[in-house]
């Protein structure tokens, strides 16, 4: 068998069997199939798709491409969450401390930014000293001791996904249902999750643009979860406009901290409470969703969720003084407020353009080896449905480069659309 023949088969729309998928993925992990062949394979899958059977085989092969974590000696029930990727999506940074404060231990391995969508690891690394490279032993010890871990995907866990994810980011091969489903589910299965809440984003700033596509992705992941014996719930959440206000690494961490302190943007707080309710119910800490939501709201109000986040940052070597005083986060050289060019109702804030503007400012990567600038980004001040007057603050850009600032300003201005008549606010979730 040769890797090139498997690529040709997929290019020619011929279904791959399990042996071929295993051969290709094993070769990719060992280095026999180089990055350029994996990129061609990913593009062939993106263009020609995969059957549910092929996707399940790809997922299980990637899950078994490295170590399989067993958390049964660490927690009663291992829960996990994962988002399919969005703009301003700092949900894990707030949700994990909230559920941990409610008594549900949760350890999560997160990823880096992918295309226009930010990544939790890049965000957390804006806290000086915060380690995202915990060993399996450290992961288990911390989960047992403080009930919360938020780290990077260990190199030995689903390494096939780790390698492919980084390649897809820079080869235009992210928005593919089989590639996203296998990427997400392989690492959740390998990380030992017994119950999983999937936050499937839909809209302009998501990899799935329509509800039909998002439902197909959600159902595929639920089926794969069932097959692997993991209880899986998928939520469909809106990603037409950025979640919350902040887009950019340290700006998002600050917004998550404000939310953990009981403030933060209304939509982000509501989104987090809903995800927490599902996690607490799946993790058997709440009788039902209402109970879960009430417990989560209490953890925000009484400060216990914020304290959990402080404990997490300290345990992972981060400087907790940044959590206590967010003005310590480095500020970009240029912070420019942009005013609304018109009066009316905001009818659209294209989340993808805002995410792309943040990448242009340096908040994401154009090449695998690029470093991210933690200080840059955009804060949108309005949401769809808001009424605005000409000259009101519309958004603020944090930039370290004048030319990039000008480019981002034009993009984010163009991302906003207005209507003279009432524009309906966007829902947070869809059925
Ligand atoms: N999140 C992942 O983990 N993988 C994808 O492919 C997309 C979003």
Describe the structure.
The chain has 3 domains: 3-49, Transferase, Pyrimidine Nucleoside Phosphorylase, Chain C (Transferase, Pyrimidine Nucleoside Phosphorylase, Chain A, domain 3), CATH 1.20.970.10; 79-324, Nucleoside phosphorylase/phosphoribosyltransferase catalytic domain (Pyrimidine Nucleoside Phosphorylase, Chain A, domain 2), CATH 3.40.1030.10; 330-419, Aldehyde Oxidoreductase, domain 3 (Alpha-Beta Complex). With 431 residues, it is an alpha/beta fold. The longest helix is centred in the middle third of the chain and has 17 residues, at 211-227. Strand 4, helix 10 (211-227) and strand 5 form a beta-alpha-beta unit. The radius of gyration is 21 Å and the shape is globular. 57% of the residues are buried. The model has no long low-confidence stretch (mean pLDDT 96). It has 17 helices and 13 strands. Helix 5 packs parallel to helix 11 (249-260), helix 5 crosses helix 12 and helix 5 packs across helix 14 (304-315). It has a 4-stranded mixed sheet, sandwiched between helices. The chain has helices at residues 3-11, 18-30, 35-48, 52-63, 91-101, 120-124, 136-146, 159-169, 177-190, 211-227, 249-260, 266-282, 289-301, 304-315, 321-324, 351-363, 402-415, and strands at 79-83, 106-110, 148-152, 195-202, 231-238, 246-247, 334-339, 344-349, 377-380, 387-388, 393-399, 416-419, 429-430. Residues 84-85, 111, 114, 165, 179-180, 183-184 line the site of uracil.
